Amino acid sequence: MPLSRRIERDIKSASKIRKLFEEGIRLKEIHGEMNVADLSLGNPVVEPPDGFVETVSDLIQQRTGMHRYMPNLGFPWVREAVAKTLTDEGYFKGLGAHQVMMCAGASAGINVVLKTILNPGENVIVVAPYFVEYKSYVENHGGELNTVTPAEDFSLDVKKIAEAIDHKTRAVIINSPNNPTGVVYSKENLTELADMLARKKHEEGQTIYIISDEPYREIVYDGTSFTSIANLYANSFMVYSFSKSLSIPGERIGYVAINPEMEDGSAIMGGMAVCNRILGFVNAPALMQRVIVDVGVRVDVKDYQARRDRLKKVLEESGYEFVKPQGTFYLFAKCFDGEGTFIEKAKEKLLLVVPGSSFGYRDWFRIAYCVDDNTIELACTKLRELAEASRG
Amino acid sequence: MPLSRRIERDIKSASKIRKLFEEGIRLKEIHGEMNVADLSLGNPVVEPPDGFVETVSDLIQQRTGMHRYMPNLGFPWVREAVAKTLTDEGYFKGLGAHQVMMCAGASAGINVVLKTILNPGENVIVVAPYFVEYKSYVENHGGELNTVTPAEDFSLDVKKIAEAIDHKTRAVIINSPNNPTGVVYSKENLTELADMLARKKHEEGQTIYIISDEPYREIVYDGTSFTSIANLYANSFMVYSFSKSLSIPGERIGYVAINPEMEDGSAIMGGMAVCNRILGFVNAPALMQRVIVDVGVRVDVKDYQARRDRLKKVLEESGYEFVKPQGTFYLFAKCFDGEGTFIEKAKEKLLLVVPGSSFGYRDWFRIAYCVDDNTIELACTKLRELAEASRG
Fold first, then answer.
1. How far apart are the CA of B70 and the nearest CA of chain A, in angstroms?
2. How large a percentage of chain A has pLDDT more than 70?
3. Does A286 have pLDDT greater than 90?
4. Does B25 lie at the interface with A, CB-CB under 8 angstroms?
5. What is the pLDDT of residue B25?
6. ipTM
């Protein structure tokens, strides 16, 4: 057998999404790219903000020694700048450079955190529906996923999370704004979770970390206010990526910041430096570390908002049940018919969406609306037709 | 305990090098950077070649959509260009783009390969002295390191490698030109290994992969000819990084190419695509993928050669026993006295070198001469004094 047994199995379980992607490429070849509404991928068509190109052009000319290895945690002045921004913007009180690690995107950051804290056989809680690769990340380091269902409105059901905790629970991953639902957890909801975990520590001495995965935090609508749970709970890791806010997912740049009150924070940071190296990341790409400092974050959510509003209206008018989308560029809706039938019918109409089972939540589907307006219009027509056909 | 037990242990075992680095920083603060000869790190002071800055400046202006996600294996035309170069330069016969994965440097590439092929409990053979992080890479994926001593001239002892193979052996890592010895394995030596593994397959049906780690292959001296074992053995992965050849280790860019005759090569490439994603690399940094195509590889080894010659002369004159350095920017020499005493005495003289035990080979030490000429001269004086003191 050429592949390891784990990867053989992972490839099989991932085959549903993979087949969909391959199917998409095939359908576009047959029917023309303009006629296929591919809403399957969270790959923004938006270009990086004004100033990005100029910043890269400027920085590449400046100073020698800028492409060498730097400390595994990143350039000291970049970490300093990130710490200052997070402090200025109120995410943390008095965060220092020594509490920030630059990393190659959020997926790298989460893997480094898990490798640092997780012992084989321990489990990590996620709330369904969840980003499908969390399962692989946890299993990479010998852990097990511990899945909890959400409240009816797709907020956190803290009672259920409390019930799911056992003595092998090491961390909870919180993803807000949420992929795939678009839900932004409220401050009250997050505080309830933070308090429950703090009580757990106080009463039973069990340290459970929170890993707050926040790549979409600037992509929120209708004046929704974003709260980071990393600010509410001492033993928290904030994991951030510039992939969505700067539309540069191919460049792999982000950071992990720990809550300044984290117990043994300096040992944890030392562990993360080692893990960033031995997992093979070594350091976040050097040029992009410098770029994010000079560019700053400037997301224009206007375009996303217009697309969300358009789709929301069509889903409403067509009688779909869907989650009220407060952030991200995803919509999560319920399938008419069973999931298999619905996704198949959509594909026949050249509409590509991801089945809920890929997020651990069957019979729903995810729409990614980070696509161009033509694709949105095409999708609206097809979503309407699908609803009519199901009712007819 | 905040850290996982594995990382707690890794930090302890890595502490010798780490302490040395920290000691280096401390010594430079006390005595001034000009007075400390720090030869501990393989971080080239050479700048990227002419054309690098211009290429980045040009590419950043061109085309939209260039910072988005691309397929996990890399931009198709970049993989095509790498395949063509490797074919044109005679590394492989008829290599195709579908047999190349772009990755975030060699450390990423090796981790992706190991995750793809390794089952927990299997072992990977390395030949001492070896790059210390191979151990972590193998253990990341549940494997065990299987260490073999080299021949007296630090070439491969194929008989010993054959004896070390058991039914759990899954791969052999070959690093030529070698870090830390600077040895370039001869074609005959590599053919002997390839033949032995092919016989093993033929007689016992056991597939053992070769992972050929080649970041230093352009850095060779005295007309030494480099042979890639990946060209001599079907079940081979060639892992390459532009860190050394373009002096851009901070940017994290490289590739893995499989021998076109690899069994089940297409399943392996499919597995690598999944592993690149789930390990958290996702893809090699987008901009640098494009840069390496346009810049090409242009290493000027003149400066390294001059430094090597200077150090070699001093080591010879001072009576050190050392390995004939044919490539890389490392020299591997034997300690006068035991390792602990020698490294300590060197440190007292403000000379920083890495102990051989960090490469699984005690009582020797590694010099990294990718430093400036002032540091080389300083080091020469100190190496002479150390030899005199030991004899005196």
1. 7
2. 98
3. yes
4. no
5. 80
6. 0.95
Contact with chain B for residue A117, Cβ under 8 A? yes
Residue pLDDT, tens place only, A352-392: 999 999 999 999 999 999 999 999 999 999 999 999 998 76
Per-residue pLDDT band for A17 (boundaries 50, 70, 90) equals low
Domains of chain A: 5-48+301-391 (3.90.1150.10), 66-295 (3.40.640.10)
A-B Cβ pairs (cutoff 8 Å, strict): 220
Looking at residues B62-76, what average pLDDT do you find?
91
Whether pLDDT at A158 is above 90 = yes
Residue (of B245, B232, B238) closest to B193 by Cα position: B232
Give A207 to chain B, closest Cα distance, Å.
8
Amino acid at A184: V
Among B5, B48, B64, whose Cβ lies nearest the Cβ of A47? B64
Mean pLDDT throughout A134-159? Answer: 97
Mean local confidence (pLDDT), A200-209: 95
Q: Tell me which residue in B5, B252, B263 faces A2 most closely, judged by beta carbons.
A: B263
Q: Is the pLDDT of residue A13 over 80?
A: no
- Per-residue pLDDT for A298 more than 90? no
Distance of residue A8 Cα from the nearest chain B Cα, in angstroms: 8
The answer to whether A295 and A49 have CB atoms below 8 angstroms apart is yes
Helix and strand numbers (H, E) in chain B are 13, 12
Does the distance separating the beta carbons of B250 and A70 come in below 8 Å? Answer: yes
pLDDT, residue B14, reads 64
Q: Does B389 touch chain A (CB under 8 A)?
A: no
Residue type, B83: A
| Closest of B52, B103, B95, B51 to residue B74, by C-alpha | B103
Confidence check: pLDDT of B156 > 80: yes
Question: Residue B392 — very low, low, confident or very high, per pLDDT cuts 50/70/90?
Answer: low
Confirm or reject contact between B248 and chain A (CB < 8 A): yes
Nearest in space to A25 (alpha carbons), one of A10, A12, A8, A40: A40
Whether residue B11 and residue A271 make contact (CB cut-off 8 A), yes or no, is yes
| Interchain CB distance below 8 Å, B283 and A252 | yes
Would you mind telling me the total number of residues written for chain B in this entry? 392
* Nearest beta carbon to residue A60 from set B56, B136, B278: B56
- Residue A285 has its nearest CB partner, among B61, B264, B285, at B285
Q: What is the pTM of this model?
A: 0.96
Nearest CB among A56, A111, A118 relative to B4 is that of: A118
Please state, in angstroms and as integers, the Cα–Cα distance from residue A321 to each residue in A12, A316, A352, following that order.
30, 8, 18
Chain B residues in contact with A118 (beta carbon < 8 A): 4
Q: Residue A250 contacts by C-beta under 8 Å, 6 or more apart in sequence?
A: B66, B67, B68, B69, B70, B283, B285, B286, B287
Q: B285: which chain A residues are within 8 Å (Cβ-Cβ)?
A: 104, 250-252, 285, 288
Q: Would you call A13 an interface residue with chain B, using a CB distance cutoff of 8 Å? A: no
Q: Is the pLDDT of residue A110 over 90?
A: yes
The reply to whether A277 touches chain B by the CB within 8 Å rule is yes
The yes-or-no verdict on residue B337 having pLDDT over 90 is: no
| Distance in Å, alpha carbon of A21 to nearest chain B alpha carbon | 11
